[in-house]
Design a protein that fits this description.
The structure is a homotetramer. Chain A is 76% helix and 0% strand. Chain A is built from ten helices and no strands. The longest helix of chain A has 25 residues, at 47-71. Chains in contact: A-B, C-D.
Chain lengths: 190, 190, 190, 190
DNA sequence: CATGAATGAGGTTTCATTCAT
DNA sequence: TATGAATGAAACCTCATTCAT
């Protein structure tokens, strides 16, 4: 079955995001899937392959979702806010994946750079565009820090129960307030 | 020597922040200090004690620096901005410690809760105060997410070379823009 | 193979009874079995598990042998003597196990109490019964001391070559003399 | 001070008898004495020296007490019973030493043989004498097993609270019943 | 494809002993 | 005599990976 391979990814993701990568053993994964250790090596030739493939997979997925959201040709504001919402909706609907991506990021910076479709790059690009259009209130590097940092924390605080409310609403609010924080008010003409 | 104990903490911190906690072995630490593995156990009874003690130590240190910064009785704005600057200056001057604290946080949420002097608590309290005074533009949970997230990312992007400039200037800019993002403009009367 | 697990128990028992528990290393056991240390941990999750399981196993075995011997409904004397003989025959045929049980007993009193099928309990009960029937010449606690002590020493002295003779004969003689020492002579009417 | 050396022996004995020899570390002993590890090596050149010296010391002590008790020229019965009582009184008054001797015995049979003044030898000799005089009811090897075994167990059961009563009384009773068990009744003419 | 026993390298920890002070 | 840091060997245990079945 093609299924087993996917199951391994699913369970590995859960465990990695809960306990950490090094803290999760091949045995843990095998047990969670309901197979034995050896079987895993039919599908992946090392633990590291699972680790890396998961990151790549979800990076690309989030990247594409965000990319898609940018295609809607409306105002800058709507493009930005839609993208932020897409980002957060992905995080809320794939908490394991999102949490895992952060953990991976922290411990494997070098490997991160090898990944092509990095959500960070899209965020970076969109903010760069706003800057070029002269509608950014603050320096783009700071804007990037504010956006990425806030997104991560909103996700985290929601999963910790600090931020409450429906997913969609949280996403909308966050997009709104980030936009307000970044953009020079010009009477709504952007 | 009283020195060895401190040396162990120093080298462990470096390694933990570079490679991660589990990825750093007692042997790594011993080599960095220039002693043998066994010797470490005269000073700490387990690797975990080192891990925890480091977190506690730097949490308390940052906490106290922030607390101190709050004592200056001036305007709300100055209190807030001074605290943010104190936070970032600490991070910039103790990059290993700050990076380590984030790693620890991600993997050891349960242990984090046992720590008394948590910088997060102070940030939380200050934002709560602003809320009570009615000068917060956004909901306090979101404000907290924005502040903590931005601080972490500004530190990260500076250490990655994305954000450039002198430490003090970065800290000032960040404090300024966070204040602006959080606060209802009222003609400068806060 | 199901075999390996048993082999580990067999070799561990030998080594424990020869050199002591703490004095026997996992490596010793692994070598004796012809595997590597790590392999042991597929079958037992700790050295302590081996240690405890061995005690439990042989305690239960001896207990059941003694219990069985008591089922033969004959005179008190025959029941007692048969049980003593069963006890010694077990010891003579499983010298490692018996020696091990004594070592374990000495060093791990607390764990001993957790074991359900303790031969001691059966000896205790049988002597209690004799006491209730009023045919015991001496106080039951002393009788118990005499019986257990003598059994242990007869085993020991035989294995040291001090006591000679065929197993069966030694067992019979011991049973006889213990009975005589415990029981009020009443013309053979018990 | 000569004192420290003795203190080390005292504390080592306590710990060995409580936890076992291997289970007791030099550090444990040092702490109990109130000195540091290195200091112990001023007085003993190895842990093993402590272990062996303790056994030798208390073996000799018990041996001499028993020897002394034999000097009183009275009847065989009184000699035997006095010796048994001396043995038990020693055990009751030096429970750590007695318990330790048994542990040592179990794990270090080879070293035991090197010791000259072994209480076992005296017991053996006295029983041999009774045999030669033809007043032994049972074979001397069995008599020896019964005597040594019973003594050990009476001590053990008393320390476990199974056998109750005043030390002296227990010793007297034990001596009496062992004599009765060993000796052919001949109308009290021994 | 899957099993699960086994390997082998390496991790954490313990501890008798040494040694500079 | 005593300290206590340090050594070094060895203990227990873990785990990614391999392999015969």
């Amino acid at each position: 079955m093609v299924r087993t391979r996917d199951l391994i990814l699913v369970e590995a993701l859960k465990l990695f995001s809960e306990k950490g990568i090094k803290e999760t053993t091949i045995r843990d994964i095998a047990r969670a899937v309901g197979i034995t250790e050896g079987a895993i090596y039919r599908h992946f030739h090392s633990k590291d392959q699972i680790v890396y493939e998961l990151f790549e997979k979800y990076s690309a997925e989030l990247y594409e979702i965000m990319e898609e959201s940018l295609k809607e040709k409306t105002s800058d504001e709507m493009r930005f806010r839609t993208m932020i919402e897409a980002f957060l909706n992905f995080a809320f609907n794939n908490p394991d994946a999102f949490r895992y991506m952060n953990i991976f990021h922290y411990l494997r910076e070098k490997q991160v750079r090898r990944v092509k479709k990095l959500p960070f790059n899209l965020l970076s690009k969109v903010i760069g565009d706003l800057e070029e259009k002269g509608i950014l209130k603050i320096e783009p590097e700071y804007a990037l820090a504010m956006v990425t940092g806030t997104l991560e924390r909103v996700f985290l605080y929601r999963s910790m129960g600090i931020i409450k409310g429906r997913k969609k609403v949280i996403a909308k609010k966050t997009a709104q307030l980030l936009w307000n924080s970044l953009i020079e008010y010009n009477g709504g003409k952007n």
